[in-house]
Amino acid sequence: MNVVCIGDSGIDRYVPLGVDRPGGITLNVAVHLRQCLPESRVTVCSPVGSDPGARIVTDTISQAGLDARIRHLDGETPVQYIDLEPSGEKRFLEYRAGVLRDYRLGSEERTIVGASDLLVTTVFAQVEALFDSVMATPSSGLRAVDFTNLSDVADGVGLVSQYAGRLDVAFFGLASGEVDLIATLEEIALSTARLFIVTLGRDGSMALGGSRRIVQSARSVPRVLDTTGAGDSFAAAFLAEYCATRDIERSLASGSDKAAGTIQHIGGFTLGTQSTS
To answer: What are the distances in angstroms from CA 68 to CA 39, 48, 112?
Structure first.
């Protein structure tokens, strides 16, 4: 299978720990998809800057066994500043999009998208223009979008409605108390015959768009160290299973299992002998 992940690859800067880790939604998903689909080709398309952070990203891509279309631009590699609560819950302090702000698909990336069996991309405030260019590029395979929590775009529900017809699976990271938003998303999923997956942290996950909601509980773990990237690893494992079986319940369970592993180490993923604490 030919998998293509487009969007942000950058640095997760853990302020209380004083360490930088490779991260970003797109890189996290790509690494986990590579782990879940070892026989597949997984390509990541992202920009990096002219700073030391670029080397962290490119070295990670190589170590993870990913194919890549990395565009090197003058400026800063994207950086997410992160604090960690005593519970292990992440808290995003500041995001510097850097070179990601001006990144758009070129002809080579559009060709890569067109040949994909699975396309995975994301949208948040700093990448809306990039997202437009991705969604305007046709492909014949499964198309998945991570809408994150919809909190930093002007009209999140409107954005979902606008693009629902151009995707197959959408992911949202919400809180269980956002019942009205979840109900609205379910209406969109039903009216467009699309599959919407909502992750709810410790409250598990659910699938919307079918004759009934399908609910999956979160896996319990001995200790939560860092929730960064849990939703990304969930999405990767879900998609790997869903592409193989189209079984939503099994896919939710696979996502839950993968996310449970992710929250037991620092950073969105581990590679080789990378430290987990």
So the answer is: 16, 12, 10
Asked if the structure places residue 22 within a domain, the reply is yes
User: What CATH number is given to the structural domain containing 21?
Assistant: 3.40.1190.20
Q: What does each of the 277 residues of the chain score in pLDDT, given as a tens digit?
A: 999 999 999 999 999 999 999 999 999 999 999 999 999 999 999 999 999 999 999 999 999 999 999 999 999 999 999 999 999 999 999 999 999 999 999 999 999 999 999 999 999 999 999 999 999 999 999 999 999 999 989 899 999 999 999 999 999 999 999 999 999 999 999 999 999 999 999 999 999 999 999 999 999 999 999 999 999 999 999 999 999 999 999 999 999 999 999 999 999 999 964 443 3
240: in domain: yes
Structural domain tally of the chain?
A: 1
> In this structure, what token pair is assigned to residue 47?
């920009």
Euclidean distance between CA atoms 99 and 193, whole angstroms: 36
pTM of the predicted model as reported, rounded to 2 decimal places: 0.96
144 within some domain: yes
Domain that holds residue 183: 2-262
Integer Cα distance of 10 and 48 in angstroms? 7
Answer whether residue 276 is part of any domain: no
CA pair distance 23, 78, nearest whole angstrom: 9
